[in-house]
Specification:
By secondary structure, the protein is an alpha+beta fold. It has two domains: 1-50, YefM-like fold (3-Layer(aba) Sandwich), CATH 3.40.1620.10; 55-87. It is built from three helices and three strands, in the order βαββαα. It has helices at 15-30, 52-66, 69-96, and strands at 10-14, 35-40, 43-49. The chain has a three-stranded mixed sheet, with helices on one face. The protein is elongated and about 60 Å long. The protein starts with 9 loop residues before the first strand and ends in a 6-residue tail after the last helix.
C-alpha cells in the first residue's frame, strides 16, 4: 500500500507471491492499471508484467521516435563517432605493434 492508503500502480513481487496472486494481477494489469515487477530470491533478473495495450503503446512511441529527424541525426553522429574511434584504435595499434627492441 502507498502512504495515502491507495495501492501503488507499480509493484514489486517475488515469484512465489506472484504465482499466488496471478489471476488477480492479470485482471488488474489487463485493465491497464499499472505494472508489476517480478523478482526471484537469489537472482538479479527482474521481469515486468504490463498490459498488451501498454506494450503496444510503448512500441508505437518507439516507432514514432525512430522516424524523427533528431533521432536519425543522433544515430548518424554516433555512427561517425564509432567510425572515428575505430580508425583511431587501428592507427594506435599499428604504431605499437612493431617489433620490440630490448
Amino acid at each position: 500500500m502507498a502512504a495515502n492508503g491507495v495501492q501503488s500502480l507499480f509493484q514489486t513481487l517475488d515469484l512465489t507471491r506472484f504465482r499466488q496472486a496471478m489471476a488477480k494481477l492479470h485482471e488488474v494489469v489487463g485493465c491497464g492499471k499499472g505494472r508489476i515487477e517480478i523478482t526471484r530470491r537469489g537472482c538479479d533478473d527482474v521481469c515486468v508484467l504490463i498490459s498488451k495495450a501498454e506494450l503496444e503503446s510503448l512500441e508505437q512511441a518507439l516507432e514514432i521516435l525512430t522516424e524523427c529527424e533528431h533521432y536519425k541525426a543522433m544515430c548518424d553522429n554516433l555512427t561517425q563517432l564509432v567510425a572515428a574511434c575505430a580508425t583511431s584504435d587501428e592507427q594506435g595499434d599499428s604504431k605499437t605493434s612493431g617489433p620490440v627492441v630490448s
